[in-house]
Amino acid sequence: MRVKQIFCICGTDTGVGKTALTVLLTQFLRTLGINVGALKPISSGGRADACALQAVLGGALTLDEINPWHFRPPLAPVLAARRERKCVTLADVLVHIRTMQKRFDILLVEGAGGLLSPLGEGFNSRDLLTALRAMPVIVCPNRLGAVNQALLTLEALPKNFRARARVLLVSPSKPDVSTDINAKLLAEFFYAKRIFRLPRLGKIFEARRVIRNAAVRHTLRTLLQI
């Protein structure tokens, strides 16, 4: 595993499990003794996700270091910022992330909304991860429509990033008939070894307990390639 790696946790939509995955990855890496940081640079509608990251980091970062740009309106971050007459630029976000990167061997950066949801003026998560040369991890709910959503998100990535991306299918609270076969169908269009599955975790879960599960640990280790 190379040092100073950045993983960008993206989603096919909002509320698909990006924070749950980021929390699990953080806990797993800390358990391995790896110096890991986790950021959610931009948020809107509350800071619960950033608070979850702060808790799992055990005080390694302050809330404002994890989430320096936060806005109250529950809208796309760019709209929420405009409501508060504020402006977030890609350059400012990059400066913050690169400053944080110096402190950690692995840095997890969680986006907001879907891959192309506007984060600030003139940029989205795709722009952010390409500027950082980060490893894309795409989180997608494992239900009917997952294959289309995952492929659309992959197609939106630049070719060289698409080739390295990982797709994580997260089981919904109520699985449907497609939940058990989406991964197999997606593998007809994307690399099977880069498609992963996780059970439904819910909004409240104990990361330490979850990663005791051998299958979950194997999934996280393989996803990270460690």
Would you kindly provide a written description of the structure presented here, covering whatever features stand out?
The protein is an alpha/beta fold and 226 residues long. It has a single domain, classed as Rossmann fold, CATH 3.40.50.300. Helices cover 40% and strands 19% of the residues. The chain contains eleven helices and ten strands. The chain has helices at residues 18-31, 48-57, 63-66, 77-83, 90-101, 125-132, 146-156, 159-162, 182-186, 207-210, 214-224, and strands at 5-11, 36-39, 42-44, 69-71, 106-110, 118-120, 123-124, 135-141, 166-170, 195-198.
How many distinct helices? 11
* Count of domains: 1
Computed over alpha carbons, the radius of gyration is 16 Å
What fraction, in percent, of the residue positions are helical?
Answer: 25-40%
Main sheet record:
6 strands, parallel
Secondary-structure-based class equals alpha/beta
Major β-sheet strand ordering? 2-5-1-8-9-10
Distance between the termini: 6 Å
Principal-axes shape call? globular
Q: In sequence order, what are the helices and strands, one letter per element?
A: EHEEHHEHHEEEHEHHEHEHH
β-strand amount? 15-25%
- Fourth CATH level, the homologous superfamily: P-loop containing nucleotide triphosphate hydrolases
At CATH level 3, the topology is Rossmann fold
Look at the structure and give the mean pLDDT. Answer: 95
Number of strands: 10
Uncertain parts? none
- By CATH, the architecture is named 3-Layer(aba) Sandwich
The level-1 CATH class: Alpha Beta
